[in-house]
Amino acid sequence: MLSSLIFTVLAYFIGSINSSILICKVMRLPDPRTMGSKNPGTTNVLRTGSKKAAILTLVGDVGKGFVAVLLAKLFVVPMMGLGCVAIAVTLGHIFPIFFEFKGGKGVTTAIGSILCLNALLALALIGLWLMTAATFRYSSLAAIVAAVAAPVLGFCFGGISLALPLLILCMILLWRHSENIHRLYHQTETKISF
What are the backbone dihedrals phi and psi of residue 118, each rounded to the nearest 5 degrees, phi first? Predict the structure, then answer.
C-alpha cells in the first residue's frame, strides 16, 4: 500500500516534466502554449513545422508514462497500484507542477503508461488511433475513440483490475477533449495532414 502511494506521487512529478515545452525551448521554436491550439502536446508541436521536435515530444511523453509504471512494476506494485500510477503520471502531464499546472491533453502519456501495463492492449489502442486518424483526419477524434475503447479492451486483456483505472483515465481524457468534442460536433475542428 505504501509503495503504491510513493510511486503514485513520484509518477505525478515525472508526468509534470513537459517534453514539448522543453524540446521547443532547446530547439528555439515557439512555445507550444502560445501558438496553434495552445496545447503543449505532439500535434501542436507539429504545427511549428518541425517534425523532429514533434517526434521527440511524442517519444518524451510516451516515455515518461512508460517509465513511471515501469519503476512501480520493478518494486512489485500490484495492478490496482499500477493503475493509480498510470492515472497520476497522466494527471502530472495535464496539470504539471513545474509549468503552472497548464499542460497537455494527456493522451500520449496515458498510452505510454498503458504500454507498460499491457503491451498488446497499447498496440491495439495505437492501431485504433491510427485507423481513426487516417480515416477521418482528426487527431482529437482518434484520441476520443481510443480512450472510450481503452476500458472495454482493458477488461478483455486484464479483467477489472486493469479496466477500472482505464475507465478513470478515459473519463479524464474525455473531459480534457470537451472543447474538441464541441468543435467536432460543429465541424470546426482542425484536420491533420500526413
Answer: -160, 105
